[in-house]
Amino acid sequence: MLLSKCPVNACARLSQVDVDPVYQLRFQELGVRPGATFRVSTRAAFGGVVINIAGTRVAVDRRSAHRIHVELEPAA
Question: What whole-number distance in Å separates Cα of residue 48 and Cα of residue 42?
């Protein structure tokens, strides 16, 4: 599933981060890397997604959200 399709308040795990190489290092610095778990906080009107990853809110733009693959975590 793509991050852009992930429902709000869903917990998921990043499986593949396929962003432009220019932004790859910045995403890794923010904790957006394969294997990390997160929760979708909100959806922005412009198509972006705000995720809560390791206690930090990170805004992901629409283009990048369409290139990040996630796996939903089972509900606890």
Answer: 9
